[in-house]
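Quick log. Single chain, no ligands specified.
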Amino acid sequence: MAATTKTKTAAPATEPGTRDRLVRTASHLMQHGGYESTPVKQLVREAEATLGSLYHFFPGGKQELAVAAIRFGDGEFAQLLRDGLAGHEDPARAVEAVAELLADALAASDWRDGCPVTATALESVGRLPELQEACAQSFGHWQELVAQRLLASGIAEPEARDLAVTIVATLEGAEMTSQVTASRTPLLLAGRHLARLVASYLP
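-> predicted structure:
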């Protein structure tokens, strides 16, 4: 039965502000081509912003915006990790679930939307220290999330932290391979073998 009392109409969703649009657009474009292949003019156009607004929010220009975009991508991947790791009581199955979520997301984007952090990481090494540091912090953040899940399952700290590095590195490499080959198989196989590895360390 429908309620007879009046309910307030939900307020419309707030549109992202100019700064958020710039960051999201930069992250999206960097997923496709990394930092060097993301022209400022295209970025501003697709964000429905102006060059002046870019320098207003990011006085350091494209590089400062790219750091913000890396942190945004860090947050997106971290949320996917949390979702996968929390979805199963068995940590081995949880790690496999993360690989499956990555495969689903990549396939849904028609193999275009890889990790903006990975796409930028290699081209920043030795050339763009601020970007390199932001990428390194992202990898460290993801490793810590995985390590905490493994520690909670009873795996000793040294092994849990070593496993976390291996898991993140393997997933990132498998994601790139899946993207290049337009196939879920590399990620699904990586998830399966990582699950076996994690299971071998469970008490």
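Confidence is low (pLDDT under 50) at residues 1-14.
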